[in-house]
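Project outcomes to date are best conveyed with an example. Our students and postdoctoral researchers have been running inverse folding experiments weekly, and each run begins with a structure described purely in tokens. The record below, which covers 314 residues, was selected by the lab manager from last quarter's runs and is presented without edits.
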């Protein structure tokens, strides 16, 4: 049976050549050779039985029939291109997450653990946006956010992840010398560094170990735990921080915990998201993994993968 429609290769070669009026430029766009473009156009002309171009040396000019055919064909090809881009975007949204996170959680916990998630979901892509503060409207281009606080933000689901257990940290050298920290009362020999979003944490710790708290609020304040931790490493004072944020510094010996005592406060790191995000399979997979990994880091290797292909929402 004789075909009644040209091939897509012939149409693409013709449309690109007509736009550029050059087989060479069309070849560059289509990633084939100029001779291949010329053959496809010649095949199309033979199929249609009309000349689509007039050739004059190296110059290429559309014929009258070529102009008419281009006006009919180009809109259809543009529709195909647009539909294909839409499908590529849909595919991307099933494997791509955009996260807004407090900086220290991102640098000290999420990025070191992210390869474990990618072992389970190798096609997953994580994008980062600037941190969304609690008084800002949740951006439409952010899948989810990790915030530090009490978990009482409006218009989003807030699920506790980690970080309500606080420990005292100091340098190893702070355990020696005239101002050595040997008992809980010795903290008052040092500057107590504060985090502005957990202003009462030192007071809670002092109450917990039953010591004077009159100087518990006097130290410098920091907006980010990463900066506060760096300040401790560099000798500005001692800190009271979420224990999970200083795992690497403790492991490397940059910091130590002078006491085994910890205190739980009514703040922590929360995963926040609009409830409709649960319709995204990749977000459901990420949420399940994140909750398990924060609960027990050993589970970061073992969370069973969910299906996240586009057809799961069909």
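After processing, the design step wrote out the following sequence:
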């Amino acid at each position: 049976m004789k075909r009644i429609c040209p091939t897509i290769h012939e149409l693409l070669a013709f449309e690109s050549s007509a736009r550029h009026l050059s087989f060479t430029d069309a070849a560059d766009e289509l990633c084939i050779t100029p001779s291949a473009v010329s053959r496809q156009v010649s095949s199309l002309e033979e199929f249609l039985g009309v000349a689509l171009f007039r050739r004059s040396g190296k110059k290429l000019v559309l014929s009258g029939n070529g102009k008419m055919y281009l006006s009919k064909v180009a809109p259809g090809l543009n529709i195909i291109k647009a539909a294909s881009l839409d499908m590529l975007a849909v595919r991307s949204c099933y494997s791509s997450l955009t996260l807004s996170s407090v900086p220290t959680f991102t640098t000290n916990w999420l990025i070191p653990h992210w390869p474990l998630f990618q072992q389970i979901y190798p096609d997953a892509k994580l994008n980062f946006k600037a941190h969304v503060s609690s008084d800002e409207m949740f951006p439409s281009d952010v899948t989810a956010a990790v915030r530090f606080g009490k978990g009482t933000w409006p218009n989003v689901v807030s699920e506790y992840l980690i970080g309500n257990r606080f420990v005292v940290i100091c340098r190893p050298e702070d355990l020696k010398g005239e101002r050595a920290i040997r008992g809980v009362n010795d903290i008052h020999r040092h500057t107590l560094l504060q985090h502005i979003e957990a202003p009462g944490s030192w007071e809670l710790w002092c109450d917990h170990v039953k010591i004077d708290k009159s100087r518990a609020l006097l130290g410098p304040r920091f907006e980010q735990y990463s900066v506060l931790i760096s300040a401790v490493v560099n000798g500005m004072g001692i800190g009271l921080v979420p224990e999970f944020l200083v795992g690497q510094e403790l492991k490397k010996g940059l910091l130590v915990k002078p006491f085994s005592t910890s205190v739980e406060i009514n703040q922590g790191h929360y995963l926040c998201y609009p409830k409709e995000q649960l319709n995204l399979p990749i977000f459901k997979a990420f949420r399940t993994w994140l909750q398990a990994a924060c609960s027990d880091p050993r589970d970061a290797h073992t969370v069973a993968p969910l299906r996240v292909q586009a057809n799961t929402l069909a």
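The two ends are 36 Å apart (CA to CA). The longest strand covers residues 96-101. The training component of this project remains on track.
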